[in-house]
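[step 3/7] fold_predict: job queued, chain A
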Amino acid sequence: MSSNQFDKQNKVSRWYFGGLASSGAACFTHPLDLLKVTLQTQQEAKMTIFQLTGKIVRERGIFALYNGLSASLLRQVTYSTTRFGLYEMGKQEYGNSFMGKVMLAGISGAAGGFVGTPGDMINVRMQNDVKLAPEQRRNYKNAIDGLLRVNREEGFRRLFSGATTATGRGLMMNIGQIAFYDQVKTILLTTGYFKDDPRLHFLSSLAAGGIATALTQPLDVIKTRSMNAKPGEFNGLLGIIAHTAKLGPMGFFKGFVPAFVRLAPHTVLLFIILEQLRLNFGTYPSIPNVTTQKLQA
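[step 4/7] structure written:
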């Protein structure tokens, strides 16, 4: 490996690259996210993902699959920028071991989940509009209109409805997605069969997407129901859990297949974009490691 190649691989991401990469990935995977949310908010399993897709396209057109895209982007700008930014800032000092990565990812994810709750809530509501009767739809014009209307009609605190589960989900998502991505990538690099290129990024991110889906699905179902609920519909978080439990244990994994189908490509696209940003526009660590010092010597 040449000195130039090593130096390029040794670059680190800027704090805002995660938000940019997540926003870019969301533009491609938003229809899958919309289908996942719609399936999760069905109390009875009536339609498959293919039947639901056909119904939405027939009744409201192909662009209905992008309903709520502005809210999805708002969520990524707040949620993902926070979780990736905090992780990247602490990674050089605390991310040398797997447990260090897990702890750092968990804290960063929890912070991102809380900060991103308002955007996440508007995202869920705008996406869920496609399956409601016309008189029941909220019809937010865009994400900002949604934030202003919720604040005006339901109060500021309502914007953080579901913050508890969003924070917990953010914690688990970051561990499964970022910490495991870094760990799988490190393991594959040590085998000698891989180098820091798109093939490595694809395999590492695919594995991370599967792990993240398994860790977050129960919390994701509860979060979605909480954010989409009408005032007084459930008796707090325990009421939502009890209501979901009526469907049996698998009620907490409702929409698991579309969740994985959505999260896997989103995770792959996210890290491929992020790695390209890092390799081409990233910065070097403030304190070079021993190997870099030898190469520069």
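[step 5/7] annotate
The chain is about 70% helix and 0% strand.
The chain has one domain: 3-296.
exit 0
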